[in-house]
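TL;DR need structure tokens for one chain.
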Amino acid sequence: MNKMRKTVMLSLFSGLAVIAAAYGGYGLWNGQPSSEVLQGVEKQDEKGAFQEYVVEAREANWELKAGAEITAWTFNGAVPGSEIRVQEGKRVKVVLKNKLQQPVSIHWHGYPVPNAMDGIPGVTQNAVQPGASFTYEFTASEPGTYWYHSHQDSANQVDRGLYGALVVEPKEQKVKYDREFTLLLDEWSPEMFAASGAGTDHGGHGGGGSKGDDSGKQGSGSHAGTDHSAHSGDNGGASTPVISHDKMMKQMYSIFTVNGKAGSEVEPLQVKKGEKIKLRLINAGYQTHQLNLTNQTFKITHIDGQALQSSPDVSGSLLAIAPGERYDVELTAGANFGILCANDSQAKGDMAVHVEVDGNDSHDYAAPAVELSPLDITAYGKAAPVNINVNYDVETTLLLNNKVIQKDGAAQEVYTINGNIHPDIPPLQVKKGQQVKVTMTNEGTSDHPMHLHGHFFQVLQKDGRPLEGNPLLKDTLNVKPGETYVVAFVADNDGNWMFHCHDLHHAAAGMMTTVKYEGYQPSFVPDPKAGNKSE
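>> reply
TL;DR here they are.
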């Protein structure tokens, strides 16, 4: 998104201060990032200079924590994959080399790349086959915190470790940070990595229920689709699951990680007293993670890569980060503190990052005097008047729900948009330049972090009321049960773009649609032998 696009989007609000704030607030930073950064190579072609990065998809032995060593699928041999850092304005080429036995891709989550570079097998490209390569090319026009991951059978491939951070550093830097850390949050299931190489079973199990048909196929090379069968007892086909898919998922993901490590394997963050610290927090998992920065005051400066108009101090609240979301946090180091997971899960102790000041390795943090609640991000900061006189060219409503259907003699839980499942959900048809309004209502029982590819959208209303806090420009928005959000975007990026739930199991079970531009023709020819699996 360029500045013109932001100006158009922010015209939904009145006041030049809102527009001006959208360009500021990025940090000047002279330290080293906390994770391994992939070094780009300066090269030239007929278009001029560019930075080239090489990313290899390959297996690697990876220890999540003591006693939990797995064979992960990785980008460049680590989980998360190498952090890609590039300066705003640079042209980028990323060469993906596939050394796995399965087809893969790279999607640039939250980044407004050209449609052909979005990395969606069967929609924007054919999946990259074993032994083959594909070059992604785009200009780093939008500074901020983003991430990349496979979008080929992503419910399984992201589960196995195919993700990493993408950071675009701004040209105009205003705030000086002494240290910066990138933290990627995730969950893991030991069942996925049995000696047989079995894939994840996504069925809803009742007592004594057996695994779905995809069991064991991941290691054999016939990587089957996600099975959302709803099992009850031993009959494998009751009309209603005894245990819902979401509840089963939470039970199955028994290890939480930060940067691919859990518990005592998570490296403490070393800082000095008085230093100004920037945290880039990325949720690469399927569950919302509630973080407690123990007894530490902080500010939220950016969400989903976009600067906030105002960043008041936060203390005594949890920071809830939904799947696919990114939060940039600023704080000043005082005493030691922890970044601790407050989820209702036995695995929450795994997701603990200790911040050690001046070499003090004490991790004795006082418990909060009262139970903490998550910060309501829609009420954070200074509100802006909403322009209610916008004439939208396209208006649509997405009703989000789940239901159980009968398929092949068994009950299967699916996730629906307007009662349908992908690929039977009609696409949202737009023309370039149109202003589009989308109302999303969650009629079901699960959170749905809805992610729009290729665009940012302005959050206009929550439950029928304008936001009480900062204007929010996002690409991923968590719609909780019973909630209704109204968002708007400008159709300014030609292509066929996915719009789906970023609980990737929900997307695989049907909650995925497409924004289609009138007259757009993809530049690739789908190969029926490529095994394309867009979800």
